[in-house]
């Protein structure tokens, strides 16, 4: 791709950043630079030399697109600088997701919203993405009255250090020591998923309850979902609707391990819930590093590239 946009991956040495670099190569994006903190600057990622991510570097004007996988505070410092330098920024942190005027995008659900950006597009939470993929077709088919979700989130959702910690533990510790499971995820994630799902689906008043916990699984998030629809939708009808939805693959028994490396969210165990009116229950699993983070951001970028809203304009300057 000699005329491909110049892409900066910020947070390239992290769990999501490494997946982002691999997927960019696989999808034919050749002009890529890697950025990370001063601690990682100067190291090599394959053929890429890691550069230090600073506001000055990112504002230099020689990038067309920046994919950010850094913490919220770092995003608040770095994203505006990159945007001021002319790059379109797709940010994975929570810094901009609920900011008015910043599109929050799952391409299969509301991809056209990305076209409304003013330099920044937000990438949703790694549980909000697969949940929105499953809820959007049900919304379109029968309307949504109420949603309850319980998430079971893997260590990778807390970053590379959490993954290394889990790898270092013995199976006995997985069974007996769950203190690390309560790492604050349930205190913050629940409000994120509720607010983000409402924004993505454009249902700001949707009654929504979430319970979130971390579990001793390395990669792959799972969610148990209960939905009440406005109109009656049988389990078989719901399965048919979900089977035809983009970004979804219906499986009898979705599991986080089976979702690893997959582009789709796996949805299954679809059944009618007799505890509610027009109620359904189902289970889903998703690779939180792939579709739950890196791939979704790249797909957002590709929406803009395919619409000619990101080009390699700076190369001709």
Describe the structure.
The protein is 35% helix and 23% strand. The chain has 317 residues and is an alpha/beta fold. The strands form two sheets. A seven-stranded mixed sheet has the order 3-4-2-1-5-6-7, sandwiched between helices. α1 (15-26) packs across α11 (290-306) and α5 packs parallel to α8. The radius of gyration is 20 Å and the shape is globular. Mean pLDDT is 91; it is low at 175-183.
Task: Order the strands across the largest sheet as they lie in space.
Answer: 3-4-2-1-5-6-7
Structural class: alpha/beta
- Measured between the Cα atoms of the first and last residue, the distance is 18 Å
Shape from CA axes? Answer: globular
Uncertain runs: 175-183
Number of E-type strands: 13
Helix content: 25-40%
| Overall pLDDT score | 91
Question: What string gives the helices and strands in order?
Answer: EHEEEHEHEHEHEHHHEEHEHEEH
Radius of gyration over alpha carbons? 20 Å
In short:
This protein is α/β, with parallel strands linked by helices and 317 residues long.
Relevant terms:
about 325 residues, alpha/beta, 7-stranded mixed beta sheet, 6-stranded mixed beta sheet, globular
Topology overview:
Elements: E1 7-10, H1 15-26, E2 32-36, E3 44-45, E4 48-52, H2 55-58, E5 65-68, H3 72-84, E6 88-91, H4 107-110, E7 120-122, H5 128-142, E8 144-153, H6 160-168, H7 171-176, H8 185-201, E9 208-214, E10 221-229, H9 235-243, E11 248-250, H10 256-259, E12 265-272, E13 279-286, H11 290-306
């Amino acid at each position: 791709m000699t005329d491909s946009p110049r892409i900066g991956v910020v947070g390239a040495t992290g769990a999501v950043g490494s997946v982002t670099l691999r997927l960019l190569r696989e999808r034919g994006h050749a002009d890529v630079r890697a950025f990370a903190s001063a601690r990682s600057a100067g190291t090599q990622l394959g053929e890429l030399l890691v550069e230090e991510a600073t506001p000055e570097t990112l504002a230099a004007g020689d990038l067309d697109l920046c994919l950010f996988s850094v913490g919220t505070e770092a995003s608040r410092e770095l994203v505006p600088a990159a945007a001021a330098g002319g790059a379109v920024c797709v940010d994975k942190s929570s810094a901009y997701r609920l900011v008015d005027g910043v599109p929050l995008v799952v391409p299969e659900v509301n991809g056209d919203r990305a076209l409304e950006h003013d330099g920044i597009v937000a990438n949703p939470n790694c549980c909000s993405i697969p949940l929105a993929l499953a809820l959007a077709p049900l919304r379109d088919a029968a309307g949504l009255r109420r949603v309850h979700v319980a998430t079971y989130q893997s260590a990778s959702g807390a970053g590379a250090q959490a993954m290394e910690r889990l790898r270092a533990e013995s199976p006995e510790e997985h069974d007996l020591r769950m203190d690390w499971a309560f790492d604050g995820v349930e205190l913050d994630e629940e409000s994120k998923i509720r607010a983000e799902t409402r924004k993505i689906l454009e249902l700001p008043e949707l009654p929504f309850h979430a319970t979130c916990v971390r579990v001793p699984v390395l990669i792959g998030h799972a969610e148990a979902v209960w939905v009440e629809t406005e109109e009656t939708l049988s389990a078989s009808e719901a399965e048919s609707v979900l089977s035809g939805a983009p970004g979804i693959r219906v499986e009898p028994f979705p599991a986080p391990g089976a979702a690893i490396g997959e582009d789709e969210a796996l949805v299954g165990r679809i059944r009618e819930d007799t505890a509610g009116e027009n109620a359904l229950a189902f289970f889903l699993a998703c690779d939180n590093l792939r579709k739950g983070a890196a791939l979704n951001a790249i797909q957002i970028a590709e929406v803009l590239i395919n619409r000619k809203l990101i080009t390699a304009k700076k190369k001709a300057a």
